[in-house]
Amino acid sequence: QVQLVESGGGLVQAGGSLRLSCAASGRTFSSYAMGWFRQAPGKEREFVAAISKSGGSTYYADSVKGRFTISRDNAKNTVYLQMNSLNAEDTAVYYCAARRTFLGDTLYATGSEYTYWGQGTQVTVSS
């Protein structure tokens, strides 16, 4: 069982930056591939970024590529999402997700592939 707690959301002006954190419970964080997703009002949840359990592989949605960076610190049981050059379209509730991986250094870009989810943190970008 893994519990995920996101933090770092808030209100930021367009062009600004935020760093989201997702702290995980447990002693096996380094066995979990992690992902960030977001859901804007009236829209479906969408994939943002993913990172493999080692941190050696990352993958981004086209809409955030070059602006967002996912990273992790396995010693701190935390995954991060650095968000730069934010715009109004980035306004959403951001969720982190985890899936234990046993073989390889796989990452996942589909919500249904993840087992555990955090409660979300609101990001609002004012234009």
Describe the structure.
By secondary structure, the protein is mainly β. It contains no helices and eleven strands. It has strands at 4-7, 10-13, 18-24, 32-39, 46-51, 58-60, 68-73, 78-83, 92-100, 116-117, 121-126. Strands 2, 4, 5, 6, 9, 10 and 11 form a seven-stranded mixed β-sheet that branches. Strands 1-3-8-7 form a four-stranded antiparallel β-sheet, with no helix packed on it. A hairpin with a 4-residue loop joins strand 7 (68-73) and strand 8. The protein is globular and about 45 Å long. The N and C termini lie far apart (40 Å). The mean pLDDT is 96.
According to DSSP, the number of beta strands is 11
Shape from CA axes? globular
How many separate helices?
0
Instruction: Give the SSE order as H and E letters.
Output: EEEEEEEEEEE
Q: Termini separation (Å)?
A: 40 Å
- Whole-angstrom Rg: 14 Å
**Percent range for β-strand residues:** over 45%
Q: Structural class of the secondary structure composition? A: mainly beta
pLDDT averaged residue by residue: 96
**Largest β-sheet summary:** 7 strands, mixed
Provide the low-confidence segments as ranges: none
- Fraction of residues in helices? under 10%
